[in-house]
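User: Quick sanity check before I run a bigger batch. Here is a single chain. Can you write out its predicted 3D structure?
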Amino acid sequence: MKLKLLAISILGVVGLNAASIDTNKVNVVWTAYKTPAKAAVSGTFKNIDFKFGKKRDSIASTLEGASATIDPMKVNLNDDVKNANLRDFFFSKFSKKEIKVTLRDVVEGKDQGTILASVKMNGKTNKVPMEYKITNGVLKASGVLDLSEFKLNEARANLQKAVYDLHEGITWSQVGIAFEAPVTK
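Assistant: Done. Predicted structure follows.
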């Protein structure tokens, strides 16, 4: 009898933690910074190709090995002039045009966790630590990458020169990366 109660208790705890994310509603956002005051400029990309883990019985299994393939020329800041500036003066300078992100080492805690994002950009791969929290049924993950780690100093300088007055002479090398998705039970 005690063994049966223990098994039911364990199954109940596992059932409580059996959450995943709605992979059809993932929203990706990046935030770059300009001006001496480090003013934020956020955007996304159109038509991101996502692939998620085959097992979807937990957040960790859904995210482990998940990937996103991004065409940076499809940048979207909801402003045609800013889109053109980024395409023409920054992304067009990449040696390899595709951006690929693969999620690894997902650690799932209670309403929070960590992810190691392997980001391949401009032909160079770096690991970007991310943290996530679940609030009001939405998972929000974020991390910060540095463009200089992807050999993009020249591309950043090219953009900074092109929009010098708008950026007051400064385009920062740090870029916040984030995604969010509703949590499903």
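DSSP finds four helices and eleven strands in the chain.

User: Great, the batch can go ahead then.
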